[in-house]
Amino acid sequence: MNPNKERNELSGPLASQDARRMRFRMARDDGRQDRQHQQQQVLSFLSSLQANFSSLVGLIESRLRYDKTKEAAFERLYQEMDELKQDQELNQLRPLYIDLILLIDRMNHIYKENLNSGTASPEITSLLESLSHELIEILYRRGVELIVCPSSVFDPRVQQVMEVIPTANPAEDNQVVEVIRHGFKYKDVLLRPEEVVIKKYKP
Known about the structure:
The chain has 203 residues and is of the alpha+beta class. 67% of the residues lie in helices and 16% in strands. The strands form 2 sheets. Strands 1-4-5 form a 3-stranded antiparallel sheet. A 3-stranded mixed sheet has the order 2-6-3, with no helix packed on it. A hairpin with a 2-residue loop joins strand 4 (184-186) and strand 5. One of its GO terms (molecular function) is protein-folding chaperone binding.
């Protein structure tokens, strides 16, 4: 047999097998490179998505802060407008309220005088008392209230001393012993302090 021919016959299948192996390796390497490339693309996309998401979150937080600031500004504006409206209303109606309060004072004075003297009829006394209560109710429906102090101790914020009675008892110092005229307030605004008589400790 021809040695060259035998060598060619042997090298033919071997060469073909080596070529297949080479192609397989190349295909495997190409597949690995494709996967790596795809992974890099996915990572790049995720990184871009995360950046966009972070930017979106920042935008939302900024908008929420702006909305809260705007809401707080509107609340302050509405509150100031409401206070201004109340002040204007009080300035317009204060003279009327004071006149009605003075009328209540007058009726209460007549009522007490009649009780002390015993000269007035029960019908007139009852009428004066009823009218006084009705006027107080009318004022109350318009935001004007009687000042009611929870304690018998003098309160300079809503009371005014008209007379002082000396006392030797320290426990009676600044005690209110008599209300001369009722005090009134419009919501949180003092219209007239309660006029009182107090005891003052003098050793």
